[in-house]
Design goal:
Radius of gyration of chain A: 28 Å
Distance between the termini of chain A: 69 Å
Shape of chain A: elongated
Oligomer: homodimer
Largest interface: A-B, 75 and 75 residues
Largest sheet of chain A: 6 strands, parallel
Structural class of chain A: alpha/beta
DNA sequence: TTGTAAGCGTTATCAT
DNA sequence: ATGATAACGCTTACAA
């Protein structure tokens, strides 16, 4: 463990620091011990050196015993282990990271954790990572490439053993990721992915998601279905709009370009959505239904409509992606496309650990595609 | 930066690794360079050693130049800085952490990031931390002490410079925190705090929050107001129930113990809330209003009522804490107690940085109390 | 002003 | 089976 400094009290001379290695561990953190006076000072954690000193052996012996090396006698091993337990020895992960250039931690980059979809994915990731001995470091890009680059830099400088990422909306140039990938950093992409990097990825069948959403509306009799989408750079955007267009075609409806609005920042700036909705609603022929192709767009859209006094589904129908656990508390008429976020997280970390722990170069990459669910709203929205 | 390993290709002999310090930086990550053949291998980041070698000076000189030490000639400093820039040198934070026992990062422990309140607090923390040169490491306790202890252990082993924490519901023994605090780790508590640790804290006026909520219902004419609360161990629980009780008293209503239900896990287990609501609704004299004293309890309560077909506010009134950004999309009759989460995060990190960066021991601790807002629902809920 | 060397905690290599 | 030593990247007395 580290040594925290009590401001104003200095005990920096290593020769002066004392570690009372006789004291028994009183708690998980008792590797810091009190000095003879009652002032708190800078404490050193118990290190292998302390164990070595206490036992009169060398640090290498201690290290070997702790690592369960074969070249050690059972007796000394037992002795060391016992002593380590008594002193509540905890290996210093920072020293290990420096030495081994790995940290037993994996980095996760998402645009925002306040988004239910992403926090659920993170929960999926953590649920498996911890069991496998990895810690998870979360970084938010806030939909900014600049920030994404900083995050990646931070994570890689912290020697993360692998990376799980959903690209920011601004990210059209992925050279920063490509660089890390080229250097051999195991990467798994999810949600917003790119083909330019040859690695595992986890997505939902976005095409299917919007296809079914659109089909649902078409079958209900809606004739002028608009779509609000994210930045055109994002993989999810083209896929989701693809499903929308194909469904229209399949049902013999013409695709109307003015019925599609993009929000470059995916609704991080609320006015984007407002503008999009307003533009749609002020068309000569305003839509009778809207498909919102992301969580943030769905809620933003609903908010805007509500604020404008436009009733869903009476005045207009709305179907959208949504992963909030309180979705069911919202407008009961709302039909949502639900993504299996937890499973996506689990799949991502599993694939990543596979990459990390594989001894030989991986050449076959998997694009794991999970199936979204169309959850039909309670109130029917039938027109015509 | 660290060196990532390309599986199957080994270049572990330091003598064999080459760093072409002539190559110009091509991107932020180009501190890794390619070998003469096209295979990717284990790359070493540019270190001060490389700069020293390139310039024919010692590493200490380089270090001094980079640290902007006074004991260095302007010329060499310029030279070193230029070279560092050219080679795209990036200091290795792990080496620094090991040496300095600090990491320029701060740890944040919350029960769950999927909770809007906490992710907003985290956003507040990050917004300031990054500007001040600190990274934020997020850890979730999932309302488990065991996990909280693990998180603290992880964070302290990573040499975080400070800690911001909201206690888990299971945490009645805070010795694990106390230990870290005694060792001089700067700690700021928020939301769920404890007096046992003498340090800064940030909370909302919980008493006021429920007092006003209760008062609101009383003024509307409700006579049998129940409350659903978290574990009795939590600071927020007693404070929030305090406001509820006092408001009842102020309005001449008798406090009825059977109208108060506790959810030990604060609704992490949904059945807890269901049970609580069910028990309330099956009393001989069921309540005509419920106050839910946390975000999770509010949504859980609403869900349960909805599933049981109990209409809010027609059959029963509901007022609760809620910080979701989509609160307005829920039942418009809902009156909520809103906490200034972003501000709480900002206050917490500011107080923490104050602790971290203060040169002298801090003896005066501040309990910063922010004011919650009662946001009255759209539909009036008048009875009597 | 600059260089040398020790040290942060650990492991790997090479002796013994 | 065990110990001495070097090394990971960096800073900082101490020497020169």
């Amino acid at each position: 463990m580290c040594g925290f400094r009590m401001p104003g009290i200095v005990a920096d001379n290593p020769g002066v620091i004392r570690k009372n290695i006789q004291l028994p561990a009183s708690s998980i953190f008792s590797s810091y011990l009190y000095l003879h006076n009652d002032a708190y000072m800078k404490f050193e954690a118990v290190t292998i050196k302390d164990i070595a000193k206490a036992l009169g052996v060398s640090t290498s012996t201690v290290s070997r015993a702790l690592r369960d090396s074969y070249e050690i006698s059972p007796e000394t091993k037992e002795l060391v282990l016992e002593c380590a337990r008594k002193l509540n020895y905890m290996p210093n992960p920072i020293a290990l990271s420096l030495k081994e250039r790995r940290s037993r931690s994996i980095g996760v980059v998402v645009c925002e954790i306040a988004n239910s979809f992403f926090s659920q994915v993170i929960n999926g990731i953590e649920s498996i990572a911890y069991d496998r001995g990895y810690n998870v470091i979360i970084a938010q890009s806030n939909e900014s490439v600049e920030r994404e680059i900083m995050d990646l830099h931070y994570l890689s400088s912290r020697s993360v053993d692998g990376l799980i990422i959903s690209l920011s909306t601004e990210t059209n140039d992925i050279s920063h990721l490509q660089d890390l990938h080229n250097k051999g950093l195991p990467i798994v992409m999810f949600d917003r992915v790119t083909d330019e990097i040859k690695t595992h990825s986890v997505v939902v069948d976005n095409f299917k998601g919007t296809y079914e959403a659109t089909e649902y509306l078409l079958q209900k009799g809606y004739k002028r279905i608009a779509a609000i989408a994210n930045s055109e750079f994002l993989s999810i955007t083209s896929e989701r709009l693809g499903g929308y267009k194909d469904a229209l075609q399949a049902y013999g409806q013409k695709f109307n370009k003015s019925y599609v609005k993009h929000c470059f920042y995916g609704g991080m700036v609320f006015s984007e959505i407002e503008d999009a909705v307003n533009k749609l609603m002020t068309l000569k022929q305003p839509p009778d239904a809207i498909i919102a192709t992301s969580d943030k767009l769905t809620t933003g859209c609903l908010k805007t409509l509500m604020r404008r006094g436009i009733k869903v589904p009476d005045d207009i129908a709305l179907v959208g992606f949504l992963n909030s656990d309180i979705a069911e508390l919202m407008n009961p008429a709302l039909t949502v496309v639900h993504q299996p976020a937890l499973e996506m997280g689990k799949a991502a970390i599993e694939l990543l650990l596979q990459l990390i722990e594989s001894k030989r170069p991986v050449t076959q990459f998997e694009k794991r595609v999970l199936t979204p669910t169309l959850v039909i709203g309670k109130s029917a929205m039938d027109v015509n």
